Sequence to fold (123 residues):
Amino acid sequence: MAGVSTPTISRFESGERDIQLSTVTNILGVLGLLDERVLVFPDARAHYDPTRMVVLFKGQDGDKTIPCAISREALDDHFDGDNKDTLKVFKASRERIEHEARRRYLADLVESDGSVLIKTMDL
Fold:
């Protein structure tokens, strides 16, 4: 099922170190031991919610939409956002913010509803 020979499986099971990474990945995939989640951000839209004091943006994991947010406080404290337009600060640092959202999502550091919230203490 992994597309590798029986001797290769035996070498893998015995812990040999000269097995190619692609072979190991194939074996682990068949065993269900790979995390295949991916979080991408194809939608460039974001908006500021003044009632929650967060910038909201969306990530995508396959067909699943992942709501993401970063607090105004985090933007002020870590992205030089003091007294500046919140959305401009977000857009200027979007790549770093998306990286942090992706890191939190893949580490299962999500809210009870499955969303990702980046707070100042997280950075």
Observations:
- The mean pLDDT is 93.
- Residues 46-122 form a domain with the Double Stranded RNA Binding Domain fold (CATH 3.30.160.140).
